[in-house]
Design a protein that fits this description.
Blueprint: H1 14-18, E1 27-29, H2 32-40, H3 44-47, E2 51-56, E3 61-64, H4 70-73, E4 79-90, E5 93-100, H5 113-122, E6 136-139, E7 146-149
Antiparallel strand pairs: 1-3, 2-3, 2-4, 4-5, 6-7
């Protein structure tokens, strides 16, 4: 745990992390002005779908096109959260219309919402009260595979073993 909250290391395919190059991270957004400049450069096509996001261990929001890998958006570093986010214009400001913790590379717990909320508040973006779509990740203690728990069915889709109730994806956490 960092002073801010639990940090997540990348647990996805090693070849994706190996492909990350220095300086290739997502766009760091630490103020409303930086977000305004960044969003002004997005096309209508880009705005029609969610973006990839991470919250770095420095608490800053980083954004990248949707088809970007979370590990690339994070520059290969640990994160406080990761997922997908969609923005819409409401009246005279940008707001978050959808946000999830859907990142199979970092598999952040739903409790990472507080870090996302803090990062969004820091750049003065309107936001929902929680993830609009929560993804529950667990690692099977038997076969060690990462699972997405659906409909509160805590059973491994790979081997049929029971999955723990508490987040356990990173074996070193």
């Amino acid at each position: 745990m960092s002073a801010r909250g639990r940090s997540y290391q990348y647990v996805g395919p090693v070849e994706l992390k190996a492909a990350v190059r220095p300086g290739s991270g997502g766009c760091r957004i630490s103020s409303a002005a930086e977000f305004g400049d960044w969003i002004a450069g997005r096309s209508a096509v880009e705005l029609a779908e969610p973006f990839t996001f991470v919250v770095g261990t420095d608490g800053a929001l980083r954004l990248a096109p949707r088809r970007s890998e979370h590990v690339a958006c994070a520059g290969g570093a640990m994160v406080l959260s990761a997922g997908e986010i969609r923005f819409v214009r409401e009246a005279d400001r940008w707001v978050v219309s959808e946000v999830s913790n859907h990142s199979t590379g970092y598999c952040p717990d739903v409790t990472s919402w507080s870090e996302v909320a803090r990062a969004l508040d820091n750049v003065e973006l309107g936001r929902p009260a929680s993830f609009t779509h929560e993804v529950v990740f667990r690692r099977c203690r038997g076969c060690q595979e990462h699972n997405i728990v659906r409909e509160d069915d805590f059973v491994c889709v790979f081997c049929g073993g029971d999955l723990p109730e508490n987040w356990n994806v990173d074996p070193t956490a």
